[in-house]
């Protein structure tokens, strides 16, 4: 077999894709050989996932007068089934009868599976009759295939009927049977019957595995019955069955669906207490969910727990948490996390820089905000109008007009950002100071930069002139502005 697999690989690497079957036939003239070699060639193709080539070899064998064994045919049939070559499966079954290869239970079980993957499940009954006429009684694999198919197609009554027939025909259900039927009840939103079947399975002496537990837990989570799901989880761990990634996922998503993120966090703590490894993806998923829910500190704490657990997170997750911290004005925490991010070789995004700068300015830490803006530029990110507004508003709030004016000029000259809103904020502060000469000089310099006044600008100037020239009329004030 190893040699045939190597020959197949070599034949596929040469131009024209050499015919291995033909080469083997030619070799029969020069050396002793066994027909089983051609059967092994079929199996080798199937093993490589080249089922069409295996099917082609089978047809050549038949034309050559070689009759393969039922084991070889079943191997090819199973391969065709996995790749959903339904027509070729039935062709192969018909050929078996023509060349005298007698089908066995494995053949019928494979074909039962082929039937079940189609839409017309009713054909199964006819096929089972044919199977019994051939002298084969359906075994537990046959029934499991059918019950699973009926449950997936929401034909629960048919599945229950077959389940009961199994006992009448002395075919004992196994773990797969019970799990498939439990899944059918869960899909039918009948958790009570699903759990009763679970207990019946245990009474029959069948120990549940992680799949059977997951089936019930998933059903409870979909129904919003999180308490029942959590109890079943504890039973599962108590029975020595370790929850897998799927189990953790369905419980976390079940809590999130009910907006119970804190319960999901408590679940992680409980799982860790029982030494159940938490997947990295679940940590990331919950951190993003907490950020969307504006639970910035909870997201940051979960990141720390994730790091203790030995998982490294992504640049995206760091940025998400920092932005969320800034929304809640946790400037110090955001800066600490940014420093940790940079230390690990990760790069803050432009959105992250913007969020921290705006947060610092809201916290009257304008000098730090400006410094971070310059770091942002050094990191090849261009600041935007939102950053300009944050900085200008921040410096104007502390009456640092000179710095605000310098920033307004800097953004206009370096980045061609002309913002009337910032212009008016700064103008308003100048108007409140009452220095008309400085006010008019500022207005002239802004015009030279390309920042045009608007209605708000005129209202501020008129208001300032009115206060300064209290004895003048409004018309005279307007004339001064013009």
UniProtKB/TrEMBL annotation:
One Gene Ontology molecular-function label: mRNA binding
Keyword line: Repeat
Positions annotated as PPR repeat: 34-68, 69-103, 104-138, 139-173, 174-208, 209-243, 314-348, 349-383, 419-453
PROSITE patterns (alphabetical): PPR
Pfam families: PPR, PPR_2
Name of the featured protein: Pentatricopeptide repeat-containing protein
Organism: Heracleum sosnowskyi
